[in-house]
Each structure stands twice: as structure tokens, then as C-alpha cells.
Amino acid sequence: MSKTTLAIIAGISAAAGSAATAALYASRSQRKDSPTPTVPSTPTSTFPSAPPPAPLPTPLRKDLIPSVNPTGVFQYGFPGPVNDLRPTMSTTSSFDRRTRNPAWVAEHITPASLSANNADRHHSIFVEDETVPEKFRAKLHDYFRSGYDRGHQVPAADAKWSQDALDQTFLLTNMCPQVGEGFNRDYWAHFEDFCRRLTNHYPSVRIVTGPLYLPKRDHEDGKWRVSYEVIGNPPNVSVPTHFYKVIFAEDGKTGGDVSLGAFVLPNAKIDNEKPLQSFEVPIEAIERASGLEFAGKLPVQRRKRLCEQITCSLLVRDYAERHKNLMGAPPPKSLGAGSSPTQRAP
After folding, report:
1. Which of the residues 108, 152, 242, 323 is marked catalytic?
2. Beta strands 204-212 and 101-109: pairing type?
3. Would you give the DSSP letter of residue 51?
4. Interior CA angle at 302 toward 301 and 306, to 5°?
5. With contact defined as beta carbons under 8 Å apart, do 174 and 153 qualify?
């Protein structure tokens, strides 16, 4: 993927998330037709096709004894970074101590796990995760009157097979500040419902969810800058600009196909009429923006594009109704170019 493409993904704004994502695919077709600009001086490329070769390291002389020992600082402690790996019954996550948010949270859902109903979220409470050192921990009071929801990365509705499993989704290491009305309680919740309904087509679905802090282009000077709010008093928890989900829908066969879906959504109010597929991005775009790798061990020949196997669309329903019926109808098989991108629940 070119750096131009990454810049488009990185520049997704809260006001035009879907439009920037759509531009990603338009840029591919336009790239061949765009004339190459000419300049009077020697042409230069903002994005060189290949980086210059790295200089070869100078071999150490065997007879030279270093007069300094930089690694001696380890006797006082290892600076880091440290990513707190946090496995629970329902999630596995890596916590980012700098932002006080998870870097990623992974879950696994199946038809059997979602059909079980052995827990009630009314018995669960939000709790700080004491496995994280206190000075790096997200605190309950950080969210107080912040204007943001404590947004589940792995939703509680995916862990109703056990009260303990459900309770563990309320750890703050599974939370990020999310815009409430129009996102966490609306579009994002419909997206989570879409993921659950995938189990009507696939026997095993794995999902990795997490925050992004993407740059936005300044309209005055044209430069790209990363800017985000920090909540708490004193400021403690970073507010992500975007969220991603990477979906692995497995066919259940040993060495079988895996349908991959990757989506980036702005942390902002989103109209429920926005097609989900307008937020689809190449998995490489999320990897480059997050510094993470998701499918390095998955051979290309086993990969399928999720939105080519099924129709990636939301089933929009009332917030209260959705909590009464978590599964809903399965996403339909692909209906072709004339199909409606968004379904409306009756």
C-alpha cells in the first residue's frame, strides 16, 4: 500500500470518516490517469519509491574495549515500553500505559457462546484494573462528567455465557472514552451486532478492537497533526480519534479459509444511514497506523475478503430493543451491486 493511500486513511476526520475511506479506493483507479506534474527544477518525489540503502554497520574491532556501558542503566530498571498483557475469561488485551487505554482487545465468539444466557449485565459494575500499576491506571473518576462513555472494546453482550466472563468485560482495561449518543449507543452498537450475526454464517469469529490516534490536516497550513483530548483531573486518559475492528471469520476447517474484514470508524456521531462498507479499509492501513500486526502468519491463499463473502451492512434498531434481542437476523449473502447498503429493522 502506498504512502498516499496511508495518508488518506490517516486523515479520516470525525466529520468525513466515510468520505475519506471511500477516497482510498478512488485513489487506486485515479493513480494511473493522473498526469505527472512538471517543475522547472530537478523533479523530486514526496514519497520515494524505495528508501536509500541503509549504511552497513561498522564491525567492532576485537581488540577494542568499549570505554562506556550504556546497558548498565538496566541495573536500575528497564525503561520500557511495557505493554501489560491481560488475559481474562472473555478477552485478551494489551494495555498502553502512555494513553491509559488498551492498544488492542481480542475476543472469540461462536454460535454456542452467544446462545448461552447465564449472566445479567445489571449485576456487573465498572472497575479499575488493579493488575496495572496505579500510576499508569485508568481511573473511574477520570470519566466522571467527561462527556464520554466508558466504551467497551469487547462488548458485554458477547460474554453472557458466564457471569464472571461478563463481569470481566467491565474492567477499565477493556474501555476507551467514546462519544455516547450517535456512536457508542448507536452506530458502534449496531456494528457490534453485525459482528455477532456473523456467527450465523461462520462457526468461529475472532475480533480485535482498539483505538487509533490519527492525524488531521490543518486547513490553514496544510500540515498533518495529531490532536486529541485527555480526560481526568489531572488529565489522565487519552480520547482516541478513531476505533478499528479487525475481523477473522473462520470456516471451521483445519487450514481452511478465513474471511478478513478491517474497519476504521471516527469517534464521533455517525448517521445510521452511513453504509458500513464505507468504513472498510485494507488491514495494512490499520497495521501502519497502529504499529500492530494482525495476520502475519495467515497465508495469502487462505484469505478471503469478508465483504465479498457476505453483505457488510447494519441492522439498525432501537437501542432498547437491541438489548432485548442480541442476535437478530444473519447478514445476507452478497446480493450484488444493486443491493441496499443498510438494512432497516421493522
Report:
1. 152
2. antiparallel
3. P
4. 115
5. yes
pLDDT greater than 80 at residue 22: no
Question: What's the pLDDT tens digit per position in 311-337?
Answer: 999 999 765 455 555 444 555 554 333
Burial pattern 121-144, b for ≥16 Cβ within 10 A else e, equals beebeeebbeebeeeebbeeebbe
* Amino acid at site 169: T
Tens of pLDDT, residues 280-320: 999 999 999 999 999 999 999 999 999 999 999 999 976 54
Look at residue 231 in the predicted model and tell me its pLDDT.
98
The grid cell for 103 is 492498544
For the whole model, what pTM was predicted? 0.77
Cβ-based neighbours of 110, under 8 Å, separated by 6 or more:
199, 203, 204, 205
In DSSP notation, 17-78 reads: HHHHHHHHHHHHHHTTTSPPP--SS----SS-SSPPPPPPPPPPPTTPPPS--GGGGGGG--
Q: Is the peptide bond before 81 cis (omega within 30 degrees of 0)?
A: yes
147 vs 79: CA distance, rounded Å: 34
The residue to which cell 574495549 is assigned: 65
Between helix 283-290 and helix 3-10 the angle, nearest 10°, is: 70
Is 323 designated active site?
A: no
| pLDDT tens, position by position, 121-170 | 999 999 999 999 999 999 999 999 999 999 999 999 999 999 999 999 99
56 membership: H or E segment, kind and range = none
